Amino acid sequence: MAYSGSHDLALLRKVVVEVVEKACHLTSKIQKNILHEEVLKKEDFSPVTIADFASQALVGHILHQAFPHIPMVGEEDASALRADPKLATKVSDHVKEFIADISLEEVLGALDRGNHPGGEGTFWVLDPIDGTKGFLRKEQFAVCLCLIENGQVLVAALGCPNLPIDSALPDGEKGCVFIGVKGKGASQMNISTKKEFPICVSSSSDASKATYVESLESGHSSHGRHAEIASALGMGAPLRMDSQCKFGVVARGQASLYLRISKTPQYIWDIAAGAMIVEEAGGRVTDLTGRALQFSLGRTVGVAALFASNGLIHDQVLAACAPAEDSSHSCFV
């Protein structure tokens, strides 16, 4: 559906792609040399790194300079840095490589600017590093950014620095940005050359011949329930990777299905950008009953289980999900 609002989507797209590209360069550089003491544990025991903080500060500051009236929902804040001046200085130094005149207080302020509660209205959604465990393993991670207006994602980008540009050449050149604009389709950009081309989901209409993708970490989603659904569909072994790169590989047709069945409601920063790009590429993203996801509920999407498909096999997957949806959650492994 074409966008009929007041935002300049071309300008928004330009800024979003540029800032995600910068964050990819920043996070990739940190990934190569990250130290043990630059990794912290959150209250839920998930890791957060100096790169998460630097990425959010960089993106948050640039967006605020360009669009000061638009608030942001971000995964991180500056509380840990305010308690650790040495770590705060390290974060600031990384951001200064891209914004030379930024002060430490501006870095901390940019981080805290991600405290918007979401809901109705217009706001950015940022995951500065999605897939932190993959980042720490020197594997897949993504910088995920989108703009939401009254529950609709208008522009989105997934920066995937370690993802092969050509899925047929897994050992070839890496580093791409997936881009979606409401009503304008989706594309993939090579980070190093800036070359861009349109992408679309796979044409597979037989689920038994399709490839599915899931999280590498079983703690993020239920590999057991995924296996039950895949078995019912006659699918083979999954492709596994960290982060919203999984939405990207569905959007470009490398996989036809991404299953994400968890115990707790999904955070909006883990879903919104990738889901929109899949839909703009011709796919479909719903919960296990076929309902569209809601991005106006706050900082979560209100459901724990969802999947993205190429659209052609979506009803087959919904039918296979029904028994799993009715069954016990004891298979969460």
From TrEMBL:
Write out the entry's keywords from A to Z: Hydrolase, Magnesium, Metal-binding
Catalytic activity, reaction form? adenosine 3',5'-bisphosphate + H2O = AMP + phosphate; 3'-phosphoadenylyl sulfate + H2O = adenosine 5'-phosphosulfate + phosphate; adenosine 2',5'-bisphosphate + H2O = AMP + phosphate
Q: Name any cofactors this protein relies on.
A: Mg(2+)
Report the superkingdom from the record: Eukaryota
Instruction: Name the Enzyme Commission number(s) assigned to this protein.
Output: 3.1.3.7
Q: Which residues bind Mg(2+)?
A: E75, D127, I129, D130, D270
Checking SUPFAM superfamilies in the record gives: Carbohydrate phosphatase
One GO MF term on file is: metal ion binding
- Give the transmembrane ranges: none
Q: GO annotations under biological process?
A: sulfate assimilation
Q: Which InterPro entries match?
A: DPNP, Inositol_monoP_metal-BS, Inositol_monoP_superfamily, Inositol_monophosphatase-like
Protein family: Belongs to the inositol monophosphatase superfamily.
What the entry lists under PANTHER family is as follows: 3'(2'),5'-BISPHOSPHATE NUCLEOTIDASE (PTHR43200:SF6), PHOSPHATASE (PTHR43200)
* Protein name stated in the entry: 3'(2'),5'-bisphosphate nucleotidase
- Say which species the protein is native to: Symbiodinium microadriaticum
